[in-house]
Amino acid sequence: MDNESGRGNQSAWEDDQTNQAVTNDPKNDGEQAGDDDDDARLPLSLSLGQTSNPSPTTTALLRLASPSPVVPPMMPHDFMVCLASPPPYLASSSSIPPPFPWATNKRGTIQSLENLESKQITTITGEVQCRHCEKVYQVSYNLRERFSEVENVFVTRKKGLRERAHPVWTNPEPVRCELCGRDKAVKPVIADRKSQINRLFLLLGQTLGYCTLEQLRNFCKHSKSPRTGAKDRVLYLT
């Protein structure tokens, strides 16, 4: 009897150990299943954020779960401020500070001959440069005398020009340098900025032909003149 009782107790003890092992087994569907259900109820950002090396799919889900920034709507006042302050490239104006005493505050416009003479402006000055000595110096033209020379070309040759610049204007010849004495060496200095070109000085010296086609067209644009055609025609219109 004692042996049978001992074997019964040993069998009961072994059954208890087996039940405890089954309960603690990770593959068990008991309490472990309940833990999985608890993890499934966690917020998406919390459950995914615990991953040390998230996969691309996890990263995409995190981005979808994160809230998007809220952009406040534009108020009517802000819209009016935008209209009142256009970008610089839209705010260009034809009014500029007069670059020369004989110029005006409008692009492509100079004062009339009578207005200049009434202001005692009888000499027009500009810069020239020698291509040999490379020195820059000033040259002055008598306004009335030089203008009469240009006017005489139109009066005597207008019909023959046929709205094309005279060859002397299209290909002006360099003059003698007053500093180094070289012949055919001096050309007028033309500013890089179109609004700063001394056009009256070039007109009186009959050297507008040194301007590029783009510079001539820019002048015709602001003086409301046609600017289509070859260079000799645009030069004539200028």
TrEMBL record:
Organism, scientific name: Brassica oleracea var. oleracea
Name of protein: DUF7086 domain-containing protein
Region (Disordered): 1-60
DUF7086 domain ranges (all copies): 113-238
UniProt biased composition (Polar residues): 1-25, 47-60
